[in-house]
UniProtKB/TrEMBL annotation, chain A:
The protein's name: Polyketide synthase
One Pfam short name: PP-binding
Top-level taxonomy: Bacteria, Bacillati, Actinomycetota, Actinomycetes, Kitasatosporales
Domain of life per record: Bacteria
Keyword match Phosphoprotein: yes
Coiled coil: none
PROSITE patterns, per database record: CARRIER
Annotated source species: Streptomyces longwoodensis
Automatic annotation (TrEMBL), chain B:
Gene3D superfamilies xref list: alpha/beta hydrolase (3.40.50.1820)
Protein name: Thioesterase
Pfam families given in the database record: Thioesterase
Domain Thioesterase TesA-like span(s) in chain numbering: 30-282
UniProt-listed InterPro entries: AB_hydrolase_fold (IPR029058), TesA-like (IPR020802), Thioesterase (IPR001031)
Amino acid sequence: MAAVTPDEAETWLIEKIAHRLGVDPSEVSREVYFDELDLDSTEALILAGELENWLGFELSTTTLWYHPTVKDLAAYLAEESTQRAAAA
Amino acid sequence: MRPPRELRPPVVRRFRDAAPGGHTVWFVHPGALAPTVYRALAGALPEGDGLTVLDLGAVPEYAEAALTGGRAATTVAGLAERLLAAMDPQPDPYTLAGWSFGGVLAVAMADALPAERRPARLVLLDSIAPTEEYKQPDDALEPGLLLDWFSMYLGAKRGRPVRLAPGALDGRSVDEGLPVVLDAAVASGALLPDTPLPGLRKLYDTYVDGLLRNNRLTAPHRATPAPLPVVLVKAERSLIPGDDTLGWLPLAPHGLTVHRCPGDHYTMLDHPDAVDTIARLLRGA
């Protein structure tokens, strides 16, 4: 797919997390650590699979470790997808 | 940017402390389910008994292998040594138990200990023996079988059994079978109605990599016979339902007793009736 912007990635992540948690997107903070959210490991893996499918590339398992909030992860995903789009 | 946090869980998880001089059950847990699943068993033990879990999911070289393709940079002997170090000094008296692949570790640990430090009892829950006859090459695991185990796992993980029609997965590839599992899991309430297939695929691939990791650790392991009698508890819906001993006979020269309990390979750990049976066997009452 084409490169995503940080805002697009952030919106995607917040919408999906909110849906999985059954809360309004406004209740999902961009700054909260992923492990502070009430997502169990099953939901987290399902979300990771959905994210990879949306982006069109696999993510390293350490991605969420090094980018542990919505804001940080969205910035990383934007940068990564831009590099991949440019190399394609 | 917020920095990564150190969230490594501890290997040793105490769910109930024994009374002074009391008996402790040490459980080797190979991951897949959260270690908190042992709370029910801890609660079913006699008053004064303790239960502590040795969580392989907290050993990085083991746990991370399920997320990176299923190849662990360690061995059964290495893991046994790691867990023995974590439980040092061994209390007295104690039972050493292991569920699933944890049973293979429990036997390796008992074997690695000098006689005077060995457990009073060795109890294995639905563990498959690491003998040549029972070792499986990666490609021997048929997609239909793996998907069936995955459904069992998913149901246990979410507390909602995923029921498939008999033969629903027969002859199906992963791509063909996973939508069948998805429909059944949504129907049972184990997954949200709009769970995307790529998301379930990620969960399935991680599950299979965990199985392959255990298979690959078992393949080069040369198991020696257990140094004390072995108590094996088989779930009603075991991973290998048609096999009574799960291959342990040649590795149990001091005796093998086999018991059955309700539940499947995963739910046996917290199924109320199974827990009572297992608690009794852990103490030898």
